[in-house]
Write a structure and sequence with these properties.
The complex is a heterotrimer of chains A (394), B (324) and C (354).
Chain A: H1 14-18, H2 27-49, H3 68-90, H4 92-103, H5 106-128, E1 147-149, E2 160-161, E3 164-166, H6 182-218, H7 220-235, H8 238-249, H9 253-264, H10 266-280, H11 283-290, H12 295-331, H13 342-349, H14 358-385
Antiparallel strand pairs in A: 1-3, 2-3
Helix pairs in contact in A: 2-3, 3-6, 4-14, 5-6, 5-14, 6-7, 6-9, 6-10, 6-12, 7-10, 8-9, 10-12, 12-13, 12-14, 13-14
Chain B: H1 3-31, H2 35-46, H3 51-61, H4 68-80, E1 86-87, E2 92-93, H5 94-129, H6 134-148, H7 151-165, H8 182-215, H9 218-226, H10 230-269, H11 274-284, H12 287-315
Antiparallel strand pairs in B: 1-2
Helix pairs in contact in B: 1-12, 2-3, 5-6, 5-8, 5-10, 5-11, 5-12, 6-8, 7-8, 7-10, 8-10, 9-10, 10-11, 10-12, 11-12
Chain C: E1 8-19, E2 22-34, E3 39-43, H1 50-57, E4 66-74, E5 77-78, H2 84-90, E6 95-98, H3 112-121, H4 128-141, H5 147-150, H6 160-172, E7 178-182, H7 190-207, E8 210-215, H8 218-224, E9 227-232, E10 235-241, H9 242-247, H10 252-259, E11 307-310, E12 313-315, H11 326-330, H12 342-348
Parallel strand pairs in C: 3-8, 3-9, 6-7, 7-8
Antiparallel strand pairs in C: 1-2, 1-4, 4-5, 9-10, 10-12, 11-12
Helix pairs in contact in C: 3-4, 3-6, 4-6, 6-7
The chains are: A mainly alpha (394), B mainly alpha (324), C alpha/beta (354).
Chain lengths: 394, 324, 354
């Protein structure tokens, strides 16, 4: 730095100090690049070079396989770590303040705890638990502490007392018609939910922010057209579109994610655009422009951080919508029944509802709690991060 | 610009948007393999004929071999003249199928809408007036619950409890029942209940938050100083400003829930309404019917947005038409 | 035209609030009175309790968390003991308020005319046309041009000064006998201030009202007051006729306030120090911590009893009490009449009904 020579005002090298070069990267970006690179290589290797029947990690002797969706998921997790989690650690004072505000909202803290469980469960679960196995003989086992009429399951894993089959800790939430352990399926479902949550929000954020800033930057009639486009996107009857597209074109989890994201970025784009426009009117922006900052720097340095908290809140509130939509579509029979999502579970158990309600109740309640948790979280984030917020949606 | 011009501009834009959405739907459907054609091909293959030729003939029969733009223009013309074609799966004109289904949908969606629109703001303002008391917490808790619990899940649980175990309500909806009878009310009670609990939460929360801001406003002090009673103060001075931001959420929310919720509720309770019609049409790959119902929902959504915008500008006199 | 009985008689008014940090006493045993036809100004800095005092009179303060004690006699009736329903009949009808910030004081969703007639129609049974006519007439009277067409305009279509005029119209439409004005001109431009003050002056005469006017601005006091009540930290420091007080202020606080005004030969500086914590006021005289004449006796016991130092002028200060030496406080001879001669001072001060 040029200030070593002297601390005199006229001798400071401002160019050097302002660190505005495009190639100047923060530790977050460096970390991101370093971790994303091997991931990308692995991904390319996995999709291009190994066949569909070969497990990804076979070359080091493991049987674990990663689908392309899993790669995206890990990528989004890396993004979240380097750009959301690490900055919290890097700015302890800010983090402590936000946490203090957040802590006031007790339901939100509980929600955070629950979502933490879902997150960890989703990440770690499939690694330590075997995938649910079909074992027809032990289908319809009741959950622990409950019992069903003995005739319902073919065989009873627990004790049979007074003509009733009792549940066991081996299958704490019972088993499905096919004998798959419900608890395990729910844990696997956590992964699916997390994947949906992370990947869709990343795509929505990316498209939304890019579109919004581009629109604001371009200005004039380009801006007008782009915003009209957003209007149209927002006017689509989304659930109907989901139905249409997914039914006709096939419905793996990846398709779900893509379709959800395609219709959800409008709100974010609009918000970012209006934020960009209003910020560019602020005095400190004018000041920073006078001192030579380019529009890109202004956006990156000021708009995004300012808007970040609102965006995070918005996105948090979008996630329950996605999860709900997935469950609804699964219930209607759309979607891949091999995907162990909660929605699929509920859908599969529906016909057995009257005599084996746990198959529907367990994933239903878990889904309910998760949606509730995201809503509480989003609400609390709104209070904590934006005390003066006038939420765009209201 | 004046109000008249503003309305005209918005209406025109609504027409453009609906046209675009309809076009996209058409393109999506036409890019999909037509099941009838596929059936013809499969059949021909099974019978030892030439599948390609059979496919070609099937297409010709349905006019599918015509260039896209011709089909498109035909389609558009039909749409706006309300000739929506023939439903193969139901053997009736699409228009007729839609109106029939609408009849049943209206029976639950009208009470649902009315209840939400009336109860939501009332509960919200009541909650704001008793902010942070147990009444407030109870109402907010209920709102969150209703909002978060998936409608279809709630529906099947209630159906299980009240229909199968308690046998208070019929498990499937009976269509022969006269519309304004007690029996109809009973069998519609749970579906409407499920829908209302789903939608009222958001409305109530928004009206609670908005009115909370207003109940501490300076003009409330003015009103009190004028001798206005608390009831009148809430009814006039709080409600009215609250309606402004509320109207945007209200209409938007209701329409957003309309399809997702009603489709699932209809499936769960076996109500032969518009949602279920769409779903079954999709399953049967009855193209015309799918298009017809999509159009309907698109129009509803677009017009809903339009009304929402207009209502917003009317209710808040501070907004000038140029801003929007 | 003053009756025998004062229009408004406030005795020992105490207003407390329960907050997270304990009980806050905003007004602590305050008395004053207003007669018909006269303007009484309550003077003091922000936080002295003057606004809370006026809002306690008609119980506009929300009573949880607030708690009002004392007696407020309006035309002989104790307002604080009346049920809310009766109070509502008095508010807007016999006692009217004008507040400081006209910007947010009106509901943005209703026309100005609607809001004015509301004040009338909830109290009197008049037809819509009659109410409109009266409102338009008043709007005209308060200086709004094109009153008839402006009746249907919304608050945001008026300037700050006009909004305050509308608020005045709203206050007067019920023909009140007592007008309580809480810093109505503070938020306005200086030129508009003068106009509004003149307007209020005229209207007072026309409507035969008593006016209780709250302000921190002694310049305004000089223009309109008949009598002054000086408040500090929830208590009354001094009261008296406006001419007397400006001429020979008794209380050190009043003297300091006057010193702040350049027009009166003061130095134009502020008063050093800050108000005491309303949760835990100091013993003795509230002003003692900031007073340059404070002695041991000033810091013990209660706020000193008010002593009459001149006809109609009372001061709450140890130095005027038994065993005190008034010359300590008088020695510097502050105030317009003493130092700079009467030429500049007197011409600014005049009784309100000239």
């Amino acid at each position: 730095m040029a200030t070593e020579e002297s601390e005199r005002f006229d001798k400071v090298d401002w160019n050097d100090l302002s660190r505005s070069g495009r190639f100047d990267l923060s530790i977050n970006s460096i970390g991101m690049l370093l971790t994303a690179l091997p991931l990308t290589l692995l991904g390319v290797y996995s999709t291009a070079f190994t066949g569909p029947r070969t497990a990804t990690f076979e070359f080091i002797g493991l049987e674990q396989n990663l689908e392309s969706l899993d790669f995206f998921f890990i990528f989004t997790l890396l993004l979240a770590f380097w750009y959301l989690a690490l900055p919290l650690y890097q700015n302890p004072r800010m983090t402590r303040y936000y946490w203090k505000e957040f802590k006031r909202n007790r339901p939100a803290v509980v929600s955070l705890g629950w979502l933490g469980i879902v997150f960890v469960g989703g990440l770690v679960g499939p690694l330590i638990m075997d995938p649910p196995q079909q074992q027809l003989l032990i289908g319809y086992q009741p959950p622990v502490f409950t019992s069903v009429v003995d005739t319902t399951p073919a065989t009873c894993v627990g004790d049979v007392v007074n003509g009733r089959c009792f549940g066991t800790w081996q299958h704490p939430l019972g088993t499905t018609q096919g004998g798959k352990d419900v608890f395990t399926m729910i844990v696997y479902g956590m992964t699916i939910s997390m994947q949906i949550a992370f990947i869709t929000t990343t795509i929505v954020a990316t498209i939304g922010i890019s579109f919004g800033t581009l629109s604001a930057y371009a200005g004039g009639w380009i801006d007008e057209i782009m915003m009209r486009f957003v209007d149209i996107i927002l006017s689509f009857p989304t659930f109907l579109m989901f139905l249409l597209i997914l039914y006709i074109y096939g419905a793996g989890l990846g398709m779900f994610i893509v379709v959800f994201s395609l219709f959800a970025w409008g709100g974010t784009a609009r918000y970012i655009r209006s934020k960009s426009l209003s910020i560019s009117e602020e005095e400190f922006i004018k000041a920073s422009r006078i001192s030579g900052a380019s529009t890109y720097q202004v956006i990156r340095g000021h708009v995004v951080p300012n808007a970040a908290s609102s965006i995070i809140t918005q996105l948090t509130l979008l996630i329950p919508g996605f999860l709900l939509a997935e469950a609804q579509l699964a219930f209607l029979g759309i979607g891949d029944s091999a995907v162990p999502s909660w929605g699929q579970l509920i859908s599969a158990g529906r016909s057995d509802l009257s005599f084996a309600p746990w198959i529907v109740l367990a994933p239903g309640i878990v889904l309910f709690f998760t949606i509730l948790a995201f809503n509480f979280l989003g609400d609390a984030l709104l209070d904590a991060l934006n005390p003066e917020a006038e939420a765009e949606s209201e | 610009m004046g109000f008249g011009r503003y309305v005209t501009a918005r209406v025109l834009w609504a027409a453009v948007v609906s046209l675009i959405i309809v076009t996209v739907t058409f393109l999506l459907l036409s890019a999909a393999p037509n099941p009838a054609v596929q059936r013809a091909a499969t059949q021909a293959a099974l019978q030892g004929g030439d599948p390609a030729e059979a496919a070609e003939r099937a297409r010709e029969l349905r006019g599918l071999n015509q260039p896209l733009y011709v089909r498109y223009f035909d389609f558009i013309r039909n749409v706006y003249t309300l000739e929506w074609g023939w439903s193969v799966s139901r053997s009736q004109p699409v228009m007729e199928a839609v109106t029939q289904a609408l009849y049943y949908t209206a029976q639950y969606s009208i009470p649902w809408t009315i209840l939400t629109v009336i109860l939501g703001p009332l509960v919200g303002v009541y909650s704001a007036a008793n902010m942070y008391s147990w009444k407030d917490h109870a109402a907010t808790g209920f709102a969150f619950f209703g909002y978060a619990i998936p409608n279809f899940f709630f529906g099947i649980i209630l159906l299980l409890v009240f229909g199968v175990w308690l046998e208070w309500i019929p498990i499937t909806y009976k269509t022969g029942v006269p519309v304004f009878s007690v029996q109809n009310a009973i069998q519609l009670a749970i579906p409407v209940f499920v829908l209302v609990t789903g939608s009222i939460g958001a409305v109530m929360r928004v009206s609670r938050n908005e009115s909370a801001e207003f109940q501490n406003a300076d003009f409330m002090k003015t009103a009190k100083a004028k001798g206005v009673s608390p009831l009148r103060a809430y009814a006039y001075h709080v409600m009215r400003p609250t309606l402004v931001p509320l109207s945007t959420t209200l209409v938007g929310q209701l329409l957003a829930l309309f399809l997702g919720a009603s489709l699932l509720v209809e499936v769960v309770f076996s109500i032969p309404g518009l949602g279920r019609l769409t779903y079954e049409a999709l399953l049967a790959q009855d193209t015309n019917l799918v298009l017809g119902t999509t159009l309907f929902f698109t129009f509803v959504a677009v017009i809903g947005n339009l009304i929402e915008d207009l209502v917003f500008t009317v209710l808040d006199p501070r907004i000038s038409y140029d801003d929007r | 035209m003053a009756d025998d009985q004062p229009l408004l008689e406030v005795e020992n008014l105490t207003t407390k609030f329960s907050t997270d940090n304990g009980t806050l006493t905003a007004v602590d045993g305050v008395d004053f009175s207003v007669n018909t036809g006269e303007t009484v100004c309550i003077v003091g800095e922000s936080g002295s309790g003057k606004t809370v005092a006026t809002e306690s009179i008609t119980k506009i303060i929300n009573t949880p968390p607030g708690e009002i004690e004392g007696t407020v006699r309006y035309k002989g009736r104790d307002l604080l003991s009346l049920p809310e329903s009766e109070l509502r009949q008095i508010r807007g009808n016999e006692i009217a308020h004008i507040f400081q910030n006209p910007q947010e004081a009106m509901n943005h969703c209703y026309t100005v005319g609607w809001q004015i007639t509301e004040a009338l129609q909830i109290h009197q049974d008049v037809s819509d046309d009659e109410a409109r006519a009266k409102a338009v007439d008043l709007m005209d009277r308060v200086g709004i041009a094109n009153a008839s067409s402006r009746f249907d305009d919304y608050p945001h279509e008026f300037s700050g000064g006009q909004k305050q005029r509308v608020m005045i119209a709203m206050a007067l439409v019920g023909d009140p006998d007592l007008l309580i004005a809480d810093e109505p001109t503070t938020a306005l431009d200086v030129t508009v201030q003068a106009q509004i003050l003149r307007l209020l002056d005229d209207l007072q005469e026309e409507f035969e009202m008593g006016v209780l006017f709250v302000t921190h601005d002694l310049g305004v006091v000089a223009e309109i007051a008949d009598r002054i009540v000086v408040m500090y930290a929830g208590k009354v420091m001094e009261r008296g006729d406006v001419l007397d007080i400006f001429d020979h202020p008794g209380h050190p606080y009043t003297q300091q306030l006057l010193e702040c005004l350049p027009e009166f030969g003061g130095t134009g500086g502020g008063i050093p120090g800050t108000l005491p914590d309303p949760h835990d006021p100091p013993d003795g005289c509230r002003f003692a911590p900031r007073c340059e004449y404070a002695e041991e006796a000033c810091r013990t016991g209660e706020q000193p009893e008010e002593i009459e130092v001149a006809p109609g002028q009372e001061v709450s200060c140890v130095h005027y009490g038994p065993g005190g030496n008034p010359s300590i406080v008088r020695s510097e001879g502050l105030g317009p009449g003493d130092d700079t001669g009467t030429v500049d001072g007197d011409s600014e001060v005049g009784p309100a009904d000239d």
